[in-house]
C-alpha cells in the first residue's frame, strides 16, 4: 500500500538531521531524498507447538512491525548511504508456562516480556555495481544466513560485499563477529548451532552464476573460526522441452571439516541432496528428493544470539523442512512433494503444498567425548515428517501484496533421532506498506 509522495520529506528529515552537515548541503539532501525508500511490514504470528510423550507445549500469539528505511546515495565515483531497520514486537496472547518458541523474550524470572524491539543500522558504500555494507545486516547465503521465520529476524554484525559487476555473476563476501537472536537485541558471539561452541568470527566468500533461465550454479566457502570450514556447491538445471520447462533437476553439496583449534572436536562430513521436479502447465508440480549425510557428525550451521530459534537458516538441502533438517550423522532421507497453483482454477495468488519426508540410518555412536556432538544421537535413529501449507497473496486493492500463510507439521521420531514427537502449527499474516 502506498501513501502520497508529498509526505516523503516529513519521514526523511529526522534521519537526515542525524547526519549533521548533510543537511547543509542541498545537493546531498536532494540526492538522498530522490532515491530513498521507507517500507513497513505488519506481521502477525500464531504459533502452536504441541509436544507429545510428556514434552512441553509451546504457544504464543504475537504482533510485530518492521520498518526499513533505505537512503539514496550521494558522492562522486564512490557513493555513500545508510539503512536503518527498526523492529518492535508485542505479545497478544502467551502464557508463561508455554513460552520458549523464540518469538518473545523471557525475563530473568522466566516470565514473557510483553514488548520488545531492536534497531539494525548500517552504512553502505557503492562503486559501480558493487556495494560494501557495515552494520547489523541480514545476508542470505547457503553458508551464513540469519534466520527470518520467527516474529522478528536475527541480525549479524559485520561487513558484507555484493557485486554484480561481472555479467551473469554475483559475488558475495562477508566478515561477521556478532549476532542477535530473534527475541533479543544483545549482540552476542556467533556459534555452531548443534555443537554449541562459540566463535570470534565467521567469514565467507561465494559466487552465483546464472547465464540463462536454464542453469544456476553456486559455490561458497565459509570459515567459522576455530570450529569448521564449510564448502557448498549447487547446480540447478531446467531444460527447455518443446518451448516449455516441465523438469527441474537440482543438486546441492556441503563439505565440512574441523578448522583451527577444532573447538568442537573432529568434524568431517559430506552432506548432499538430489531432487527432480516435474511441473504440469505451471499448475501442478511433483518433486522427488534424496538426501544423505555422509559422516559421523551432523551438518552444522552458524547460529546467532542465544535462546530458542537462534539456529540460523543456512541448511539449503532439499529435505531441510519446517521442523527438521534431516541432517543427523549418517542419515539418509527421502521426500515426495506436491505443489498446486490455483491460478488455473480462477483463484490467482492461492497456492498449496504437501510433502512427506522419511529419514533413517542415523548413527551417532562413532564419536568419543572429545566431540561436541557426543551422546546427542543414538544408533538406528529414524523419523518422518509431514507438512501441509497454503498461502494466499492478495492480487489487488487496498491489501495488494499482503499474504496469509498456514503451515502445519507432524514430526515423529524414535529416541535415537533426538528431535521428538511434535505437532507444529503456524499462521502468519504479513501486510506490507510502501510509504515512499
Mean pLDDT: 91
Determine the number of helices (DSSP H or I, runs of at least 4 residues).
2
CATH class of the domain at 265-299 and 319-436: Mainly Beta
How big a fraction of the residues is strand? over 45%
Superfamily (CATH H level) name of the domain at 265-299 and 319-436:
Porin
Identify the overall geometry: globular
Please provide the ordered H/E string of secondary-structure elements: HHEEEEEEEEEEEEEEEEEEEEEE
**Which value, in Å, is the CA radius of gyration?**
23 Å
Low-confidence stretches: 2-20
CATH architecture of the domain at 265-299 and 319-436: Beta Barrel
Major sheet attributes: 18 strands, antiparallel, barrel
Structural class: mainly beta
Distance between the termini: 10 Å
DSSP strand count: 22
Structure characterization notes:
With 436 residues, the protein is mainly β. The protein is 5% helix and 52% strand. The N and C termini lie close together (10 Å).
Note the topology.
Blueprint lengths: L7 H10 L8 H10 L1 E15 L6 E13 L3 E2 L2 E16 L21 E13 L2 E8 L17 E9 L5 E12 L7 E5 L4 E3 L2 E8 L5 E10 L3 E10 L9 E12 L9 E13 L3 E12 L6 E2 L28 E10 L8 E14 L15 E15 L9 E11 L8 E13 L2
Antiparallel strand pairs: 1-2, 1-22, 2-4, 3-4, 4-5, 5-6, 6-7, 7-8, 8-9, 8-11, 9-10, 9-17, 11-12, 12-13, 13-14, 14-15, 15-16, 16-18, 18-19, 19-20, 20-21, 21-22
Amino acid at each position: 500500500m502506498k501513501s502520497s509522495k508529498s509526505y516523503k520529506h516529513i519521514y526523511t528529515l529526522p534521519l537526515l538531521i542525524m547526519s549533521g552537515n548533510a543537511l547543509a548541503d542541498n545537493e546531498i539532501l536532494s540526492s538522498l531524498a530522490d532515491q530513498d525508500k521507507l517500507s513497513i511490514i505488519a506481521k502477525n504470528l500464531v504459533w502452536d507447538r504441541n509436544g507429545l510423550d510428556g514434552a512441553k507445549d509451546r504457544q504464543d500469539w504475537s504482533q510485530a512491525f518492521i520498518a526499513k528505511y533505505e537512503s539514496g546515495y550521494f558522492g562522486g565515483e564512490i557513493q555513500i548511504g545508510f539503512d536503518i531497520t527498526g523492529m518492535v514486537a508485542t505479545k497478544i496472547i502467551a502464557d508463561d508456562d508455554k513460552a520458549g518458541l523464540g518469538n518473545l523474550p523471557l525475563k530473568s524470572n522466566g516470565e514473557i516480556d510483553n514488548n520488545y524491539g531492536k534497531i539494525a543500522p548500517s552504512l553502505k558504500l557503492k562503486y559501480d555495481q558493487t556495494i560494501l555494507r557495515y552494520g547489523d545486516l541480514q545476508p542470505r547465503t547457503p553458508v551464513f544466513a540469519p534466520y527470518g521465520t520467527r516474529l522478528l529476524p536475527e541480525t549479524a554484525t559485520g561487513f558484507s560485499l555484493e557485486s554484480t559487476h561481472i555479467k551473469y555473476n554475483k559475488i558475495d563476501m562477508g566478515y561477521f563477529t556478532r549476532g542477535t537472536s530473534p527475541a533479543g537485541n544483545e549482540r552476542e558471539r556467533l556459534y555452531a548451532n548443534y555443537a554449541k561452541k562459540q566463535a570470534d568470527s565467521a567469514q565467507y566468500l561465494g559466487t552465483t552464476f546464472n547465464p540463462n533461465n536454464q542453469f544456476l550454479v553456486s559455490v561458497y566457502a565459509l570459515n567459522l573460526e576455530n570450529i569448521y570450514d564449510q564448502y557448498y556447491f549447487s547446480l540447478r538445471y531446467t531444460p527447455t522441452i518443446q518451448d516449455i520447462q516441465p523438469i527441474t533437476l537440482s543438486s546441492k553439496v556441503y563439505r565440512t571439516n574441523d578448522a583451527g583449534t577444532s573447538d568442537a572436536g573432529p568434524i568431517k562430513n559430506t552432506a548432499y541432496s538430489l531432487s527432480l521436479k516435474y511441473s504440469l502447465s505451471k499448475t501442478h508440480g511433483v518433486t522427488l528428493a534424496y538426501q544423505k549425510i555422509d559422516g559421523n557428525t551432523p551438518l552444522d550451521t552458524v547460529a546467532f544470539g542465544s535462546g530458542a530459534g537462534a539456529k540460523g537458516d543456512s541448511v539449503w538441502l532439499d529435505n531441510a523442512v519446517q521442523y527438521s533438517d534431516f541432517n543427523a550423522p549418517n542419515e539418509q532421507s527421502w521426500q515426495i512433494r506436491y505443489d498446486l497453483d490455483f491460478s488455473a482454477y480462477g483463484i490467482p495468488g492461492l497456492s498449496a503444498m504437501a510433502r512427506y519426508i522419511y529419514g533413517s540410518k542415523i548413527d551417532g555412536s562413532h564419536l568419543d567425548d572429545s566431540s561436541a556432538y557426543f551422546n546427542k544421537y543414538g544408533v538406528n535413529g529414524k523419523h518422518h515428517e509431514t507438512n501441509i501449507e497454503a498461502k494466499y497473496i492478495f492480487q489487488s486493492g487496498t491489501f495488494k501484496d499482503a499474504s496469509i500463510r498456514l503451515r502445519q507439521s507432524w514430526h515423529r521420531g524414535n529416541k535415537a533421532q533426538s528431535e521428538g514427537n511434535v505437532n507444529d502449527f503456524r499462521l502468519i499474516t504479513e501486510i506490507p506498506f510502501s510509504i515512499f
